[in-house]
Design brief:
single chain, 479 residues, alpha+beta, conserved putative lor/sdh protein from methanococcus maripaludis s2 fold, six-stranded antiparallel β-barrel, four-stranded antiparallel β-sheet
């Protein structure tokens, strides 16, 4: 019996202790909440805040392409035949007029001999026609005298004159045949001369497509065989494809920064020298259609020095030179990327790009009218009439300013942008605190008047208080 009473007493003691602990926890929670230690920090969405500032903004158009020589000539033969002599190999440096290759001449020499024989035959025929004309002229003279003496009829005299005209015409035809034969001989001799290929310019054999003994096709009646290419590798450029939306911002003379894949972590200066008038269209007529315009950028920085001096790279550059000090040696076809600096504005009012978003102003006005309708039923009919004019979307560029712990929406007009900032033409004056993140909040969930939390709130609110570029209240005008 005593044992049972002891058990009950211990149980009651435990229950009293637990009850006291619960009461203490409740009191502690109330105290902590009242002092703001817990429960008092959730005053709104956590956001990142940036500064509206004045800075220099440079608009950049970025495109990719290939390195190529500014001047490159494709050499194709005018005549067909077998390559019997090849004087160069790929990479050789040649001067204007240097012999590059020879094509078999026997066929064309035979054609010259035929043409020469044709000329001789035409001249012999011309002399025969000349003799016939002189004979006919003598006959015409005799017949004229006899006709004047009344010894022959007029028809006989006219027949003699006609014969002379025929002989003269035959002589003229023979003279033209001689000229034609001589022209054929000249052409045959030129064909022989075309079997020898000379360099049309000084440069480097950048591409060689033939071998000794190979047969090539001339360009007389078809495209012909491209034998080789001669390029001036001492001046290189990069050709890039610029999208049709960006090419309107590019003008001749724009400066550029060139990055070549073969030289990582290095950039080279460039300048725009040519903008195509005709587009390159990929996937025409499909949803994936892409329209680009070729743009050429000359490499301004020093390069390909060994080609300028006609030496090998080892004799030009010391092996002890640092990698960043090496003079680059660009080769046709190297890949790279170009940043073209199209437009620069100094002292532009700018915000981080992520701060600018799109909002439907009419939707916000409709929501404001709905709140007004709930507050006053007397204005319901008037608000319904106004709301009919706000059915369509009215998308505007806006930013959210951080003022007094709330988000205030300001409509802005934007200008050019660089990689990080965008110009604000109107709507802000500079110095305001603008919400720049997180992205989901700025682009979708954040609404005018929402409570927000951010670091260094006091400083930002003080800066925002100096702003003169936005209204003090975020309310939307409903007309």
């Amino acid at each position: 019996m005593a044992k049972t009473k002891t058990k009950r007493s211990a149980t009651k003691t435990i229950l009293w202790i637990l009850a006291a602990a619960v009461v203490l926890l409740v009191i502690l929670g109330v105290v902590l909440k009242s002092t703001g230690v817990i429960g008092g920090g959730d005053k709104g969405a956590q956001v990142e805040v940036g500064q509206v500032e004045s800075r220099t903004i440079t608009q950049v158009v970025t495109a990719s392409g290939k390195i190529q020589p500014e001047i490159e000539v494709a050499i194709s033969p005018d005549v067909s035949g077998e390559i019997v002599e090849l004087r160069v190999k790929e990479g050789d440096i040649v001067e204007k007029g240097d012999l590059l290759a020879r094509i078999e001449q026997e066929f064309y020499l035979a054609a010259v001999e035929r043409a020469e024989a044709g000329v001789l035959q035409a001249k012999a025929n011309q002399e025969q026609r000349r003799a016939d004309m002189l004979n006919a002229d003598l006959q015409r003279g005799r017949q004229q005298q006899l006709f004047e003496g009344g010894m022959i009829s007029e028809s006989e005299q006219q027949q003699a004159m006609t014969q002379y005209e025929i002989s003269k015409a035959a002589f003229d035809g023979a003279s033209y045949a001689v000229r034609s034969a001589e022209a054929g001989l000249k052409e045959a001799r030129e064909q022989v001369g075309r079997t020898v290929i000379y360099s049309p310019m000084s440069g480097t054999v950048s591409k060689l497509n033939i071998e000794l003994g190979e047969r090539v096709v001339g360009t007389t009646q078809m495209a012909g065989t491209e034998m080789m290419r001669i390029a001036q590798l001492t001046q290189m450029e990069m050709e890039v494809d610029v999208n049709e939306n960006d090419v309107v911002n590019v003008v001749l003379g724009d400066s550029a920064s060139i990055e070549v894949d073969a030289y990582p972590e290095r950039s080279f200066r460039g300048v725009v020298t040519e903008i195509a008038n005709s587009a390159r269209v990929q996937g025409a007529g499909t949803q994936e259609q892409i329209t680009n315009f070729p743009v050429k950028i000359r490499v301004v920085d020093r390069h390909n020095v060994e080609l300028q001096l006609g030496r090998t790279r080892a004799t030009v550059i010391s092996s002890e030179a640092a990698a960043e000090d090496l003079i680059p040696s660009f080769r046709p076809g190297m890949s790279g990327t170009v940043d073209i600096y199209t437009h620069t504005i100094d002292d532009a009012i700018a915000v981080p790009i992520q701060a600018v978003t799109i909002r439907d102003i009419n939707r916000l006005k409709r929501e404001e009218m709905e709140r007004a309708r709930r507050r006053s039923s007397d204005e319901a009919d008037t608000l319904d009439a106004v709301e009919e004019d706000l059915e369509e979307e009215n998308l505007k560029r806006v930013v959210f300013l951080a003022e007094d712990g709330k988000a205030k929406m300001v409509e802005v007009e934007t200008g050019i942008s660089d990689d990080t900032h965008i110009q604000i033409r109107s709507g802000l004056q500079g110095g305001e605190a603008v919400v720049i993140g997180p992205f989901r909040a700025v682009s979708r969930t954040l609404e005018p008047g929402d409570a927000i939390r951010y670091d260094d709130q006091t400083d930002h609110e003080g800066e925002a208080g100096d702003s003169t570029g936005a209204d003090d209240d975020m309310s939307v005008d409903v007309g």
